[in-house]
Design a protein that fits this description.
This protein is of the alpha+beta class. It has ten helices and ten strands. The strands form three sheets. A six-stranded mixed beta sheet has the order 1-5-6-4-2-3, with helices on one face. Strands 7-8 form a two-stranded antiparallel sheet.
Length: 360
Amino acid sequence: MTTNGGFEPVFCTIVPPHLLHTLARHEDPALSGPAQRTLLLDAEKRAQRSITAEFGLFAAPAVKAPSDKPLRTIYDAEHRTELPGTKVRTEGSDPGQDASVNRAYTGLGATFDLYLKAYQRHSIDGDGLPLDATVHYDEGYNNAFWDGRQMVFGDGDGEIFVDFTNSIDVIGHELTHGVTQHTANLTYYGQPGALNESMSDVFGSLIKQYALGQTAAEADWLIGADLLAPGVTGTALRSMKEPGSAYDDDVLGKDPQPSTMDGYVRTGRDNGGVHINSGIPNHAFYLVATALGGNAWERAGQIWYDVLTGGELGERAFFDDFAQLTVATASRRYGDGEELQAVTKAWERVGVPTTPRPRL
């Protein structure tokens, strides 16, 4: 396990707070009520994670997964908020009647497979961490989250969001927060926080592509493409191909993600815009992957994985720190070829410098 600066689990959700705040202010209680409750539950869980991390209350798992297989356990919260809930499926057991349980089980396995087979990483912590998930959390809960130990999925309100187990990339996204937690441990604020979110989007997308056998050209590069209810004008929560284009809805508003530093959003909300400005490094990865072609988890993904886990990426890294490391890694692993050119050009297009500059 590569750890930079210690173990510091954070509470990470897939739906950006700015979307929930927009819904919470809506005049229709069918929209505002679930959003308000989701925000309250998220705040409570965030506080719990902070205290747990501060006082070192995370217990090591009693068992570990075998070297080449995941160790999955799925729980049902039965629309309550006590975790983990009732155990409903364990590793190797047959699918049941609950589609949410089956999708969660499959998504955990797909995430394990990508990290093991593409990067030789043994589970989320690199040391056989069991993969636990809880479905049917609360009533109308509009989110999914990684709490430092397990995945939790809401069913959505049915008006704006539907079952959060629907999107395999969302499962991969949240579990990748666990990978980051156990490696670079990126601070969850500002540019380091946006990098944290971007790493989860990158590998969430790669997990979906790997599971579907898609090349970079075939992939949709959408995050959460199966989460929006039919009446919402949009395709997903985020687009790595075209940040800012995922939705433009009368209720949700317009996707605020920028694709380049020209559109960088300075805000104190959402931990300094971690879900918004992540569009910039997201787009850089998309440009690298599509320039190289083939399977994005191979060369492009390998470079990003090397930087995340290599021990050189600081907890408070800015975009240009990360960009410089991807250039150095591309050169070190692949030499002065198309990989290095693709990485350098991608960062140039999104406006992030790849040469060191003095800090103010």
